[in-house]
């Protein structure tokens, strides 16, 4: 898909063809996500796109990898509404929330959301983030509340394991 995007930017591929390829792959990933078993005994993980973010392919792939690793995962989708997400996090208390941002605007929106999430009453979720913008502009990682999960979905799965192991060692956190 990176190659498809690069070809579109160079004018070698029409927007229609790029959208077709993206739509096809998203449909395939969604179908796989529906059939991959979801863990029920591990801590709850929410995964979704930053407010304003429409690119969901990476987070779909991450959800598949996390489920295959045995985690309990809820995919929240694109363009998450900030106030609603914070209210729901206070009710359901996920152990971990992972976000993806591909562009600078989405990263700025995510920065504000993460600051609000880390300010909620304990037990608060661990916040993780990733996406293309943090790989292209690694300096942005220093301004984000939360943990950079990794440059790839596979790296993020390893980071999740480390974060959840650390979280379950904290007093008062339900396992």
In short:
The protein is of the alpha/beta class. Helices cover 50% and strands 14% of the residues.
Assembly type = single chain
How would the global form be characterised?
Answer: globular
CATH class of the largest domain: Alpha Beta
Task: State the helix count.
Answer: 7
Low-confidence sequence ranges: none
The overall strand count is 5
C-alpha Rg (nearest Å): 16 Å
In the CATH scheme, what's the topology name of the largest domain?
Rossmann fold
What fraction strand? 5-15%
Largest sheet: 5 strands, parallel
Order of helices and strands: HHEHEHEHEHEH
Per CATH, the superfamily of the largest domain is Cobalamin-binding domain
Distance between the termini: 38 Å
Structure description:
It is a single chain. This protein is α/β, with parallel strands linked by helices. The chain has two domains: 1-35; 41-168, Rossmann fold, CATH 3.40.50.280. The chain has seven helices and five strands, in the order H-H-E-H-E-H-E-H-E-H-E-H. Helix 2 (15-35) packs parallel to helix 3 (57-68) and helix 3 (57-68) crosses helix 7. The chain is globular, with a radius of gyration of 16 Å. The relative contact order is 0.14. The mean pLDDT is 92.
């Amino acid at each position: 898909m990176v190659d498809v995007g690069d070809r579109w930017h160079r004018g070698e591929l029409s927007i229609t063809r790029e959208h077709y390829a993206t739509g096809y792959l998203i449909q395939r990933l969604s179908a796989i996500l529906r059939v991959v078993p979801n863990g029920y005994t591990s801590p709850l993980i929410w995964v979704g796109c930053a407010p304003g973010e429409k690119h969901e392919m990476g987070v779909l792939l991450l959800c598949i990898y996390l489920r295959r690793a045995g985690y309990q995962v809820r995919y929240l989708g694109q363009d998450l509404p900030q106030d609603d997400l914070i209210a729901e996090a206070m009710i359901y208390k996920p152990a971990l929330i992972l976000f993806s941002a591909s562009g600078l605007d989405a990263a700025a929106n995510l920065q504000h959301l993460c600051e609000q999430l880390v300010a909620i009453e304990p037990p608060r979720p661990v916040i993780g983030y990733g996406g293309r913008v943090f790989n292209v502009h690694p300096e942005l990682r220093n301004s984000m509340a939360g943990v950079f999960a990794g440059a790839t979905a596979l790296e993020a799965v390893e980071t999740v394991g480390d974060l959840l192991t650390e979280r379950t060692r904290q007093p008062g956190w339900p396992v």
